[in-house]
Amino acid sequence: MTTTAAVPCLNRTPRADARLRLFCFHHAGGGASFFSSWAARVPSGVDVLPVQLPGREARYREPRFQDAGELVETLARDLAPCLDEGPWAAYGHSMGALVAAALATARLRAGGRGPEALFLGAYAAPHLTPTLPLPDRYEDRELARLLVDFGGMHPQFLDREDWLRVLLPIVRDDLRVCASHSRAGLPDPDDEQARLPLAVEAFAGLDDPLVDPARVRAWERYAHDFRLTLVPGGHFFPREEPGPFFGRLNRSLARLLGEPPPVAPPAAPG
Known about the structure:
Helix content is 32%, strand content 16%. By secondary structure, the chain is α/β, with parallel strands linked by helices.
């Protein structure tokens, strides 16, 4: 692939030598740093490109999105030069799964180059009753406690009012994005002809207190080629139990690269 000029939502220029670009979309309240270790965990031919949404981390001064349709429209425009250049795939975690699926749909409808595969983690299919809280349902202390309960925040920050004043507005705006999923342009799950013509692999944590695997499986109504993979861990299994998750993800990435599957490390004795 050729080297693409910098785009607003990427922290760096994509690698010119990559055989596959993996665009990664973070969870509600999160940022691109969630994927900081991924480049060292995936095949060398894959260029991991965390997508940084505005209003957090390196883009904290920029206004945040509250509407899924506006967010996807902007991402489709800003990322178009990268997506058109060569093979790409996408991974979205929690809220990021909604964003990744909507971006793939928008690209295909516009006649652009779609992803080779779509990987979705820890998010119920959007036509179901939302599992993430509604943005204004909880007071600040209640919302903070909920974030702690499913692993989205360290308990020590419950007593940091200054920190919560920064984090909670970000979380609420991201939850507004999730609540506006009907404007994201996803296929109609009741229309088999509208299903995405690509491989979709969804991941669910066996100990996820927020999202039941059966609700993740319901993504099968959005794609003709679907697989559900259950992995150890809670809502943030790529961080909590990375070994099994990356073992499965890397087998799928190797297939896209036309490489033999990676050899699993030997089991620990005993």
